[in-house]
């Protein structure tokens, strides 16, 4: 496993801290046209993802890519988790991975 360029776990609130860097976020797809996807982060903020294939609405997708700005991620890798996903656990993971346990994740 290549760890030379790790991706930070983020939600919508934490994304602005990583502009220009690799991030990993889960979004619930609201609309997708195969080029641009509009979704909702696990902390209920709107995010835009470029580079995802067309994903069914309401599915949860984990996206790894580069944070372009406060609301935009350019996707490199994605995993479709389907319609059921525990957003509270993921949101807590993001907080822990950017708080007191940051050294364990990056």
UniProtKB/TrEMBL annotation:
The keyword Nucleus applies. Transmembrane segments: none annotated. The keyword Nucleus applies. It is found in: Nucleus. Belongs to the replication factor A protein 3 family. One of its GO terms (biological process) is DNA repair. GO terms for molecular function: DNA binding. One of its GO terms (cellular component) is nuclear lumen. It comes from the Eukaryota. Its main location: nucleus. It comes from Senna tora. Keywords: Nucleus. This is Replication protein A 14 kDa subunit B-like.
